[in-house]
């Protein structure tokens, strides 16, 4: 396996919980310093601090920013801090960007109670945070000249990108857009030796999942469908991202990669829970 270049940094959006936290820790284990961007209030801020400390205990540098990753001014702040950081370490570069932002509006597009229907601002916010921000971060790191050779971009998608789930319409649209952006970035960044891939995790009991109405049914369904009869964990996904963040993965590009233990291979039209 190729060695991670010295002074390689991974920018992880959504680094304090769920998939983002697991990716940050797994990337630190294989040699990346972590730049974590997260949005936490007082109740959950200890999670971010615990993640930062865990990264430092591994022996990596951890620069954490508690801010809205979708705001242009905040991106500029992080980019400026990275420039200052890299000035102290010749050859330092961003070689991984993980987009794991899960903040969207879970409302139906159509409802008898019109007040419950998704509003324009909510739809635009969901798309901006969960999809468009991937492009803006990639562009700003590129314009600042901070990308290193053979960089990696990972965006967390879901099976909802191709399916309809009650109240999930805006998030489903954002995931579909996110995958389209990944394909386009894979094409346009190839001349710079930067790959882009989407990671489609299986159903995982994260804070984001718990916000989906009737998420218990998604969990029950996943437990039936998965060959291992368990949910995907953030750690499962973090290990996949770390594997793909090595130099030898350079020929995997523009794809949607399932990290779900085979959750989508079983056809439930014939399969029964007591059958193996």
Write up what this structure looks like.
With 276 residues, the protein is of the alpha/beta class. The protein has a seven-stranded parallel β-sheet, with helices on both faces. The longest helix has 24 residues.
CATH fold field value:
Rossmann fold
Structural class: alpha/beta
* Biggest sheet descriptor: 7 strands, parallel
Shape label: globular
Assigned CATH superfamily: NAD(P)-binding Rossmann-like Domain
CATH architecture: 3-Layer(aba) Sandwich
How many separate helices? 8
The tally of strands reads 7
CATH class bucket: Alpha Beta
Proportion of beta-strand residues: 15-25%
Number of domains: 1
Determine the mean pLDDT: 92
Q: What is the chain-wise order of helices and strands?
A: EHEHEHEHEHEHHHE
Distance between the termini: 36 Å
Q: How much is the radius of gyration in Å?
A: 19 Å
Low-confidence stretches: none
Q: Report the helical percentage.
A: 40-55%
Strand order of the largest sheet: 3-2-1-4-5-6-7
């Amino acid at each position: 396996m190729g060695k991670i270049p010295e002074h390689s940094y991974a920018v992880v959006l959504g680094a304090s919980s769920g998939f983002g936290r697991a990716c940050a820790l797994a990337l630190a284990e294989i040699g990346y310093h972590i730049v974590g961007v997260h949005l936490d209030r007082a109740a959950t801020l200890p999670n971010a601090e615990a993640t930062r400390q865990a990264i430092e205990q591994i022996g990596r540098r951890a620069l954490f920013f508690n801010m809205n990753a979708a705001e242009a001014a905040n991106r500029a702040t992080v980019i400026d801090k990275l420039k200052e950081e890299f000035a102290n370490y010749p050859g330092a570069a961003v070689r991984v960007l993980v987009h794991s932002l899960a903040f969207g509006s879970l409302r139906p597009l159509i409802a008898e109670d019109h007040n419950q229907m998704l509003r324009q601002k909510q739809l635009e916010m969901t798309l901006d945070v969960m999809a468009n921000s991937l492009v803006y971060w990639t562009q700003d790191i590129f314009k600042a000249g901070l990308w290193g050779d053979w960089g990696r971009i990972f965006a967390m998608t879901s099976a909802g990108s191709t399916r309809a789930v009650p109240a999930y319409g805006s998030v489903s649209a954002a995931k579909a857009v996110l995958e389209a952006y990944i394909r386009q970035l894979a094409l346009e960044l190839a001349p710079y030796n930067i790959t882009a891939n989407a990671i489609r995790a299986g159903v995982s009991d994260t804070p984001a999942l718990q916000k989906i109405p009737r998420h218990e049914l998604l969990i029950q369904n996943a437990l039936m469908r998965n060959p291992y009869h368990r949910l995907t964990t953030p750690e499962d996904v973090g290990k996949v991202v770390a594997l793909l963040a090595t130099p030898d993965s350079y020929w995997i590009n523009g794809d949607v990669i399932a990290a779900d233990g085979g959750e989508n291979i079983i056809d439930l039209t014939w399969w029964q829970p007591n059958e193996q």
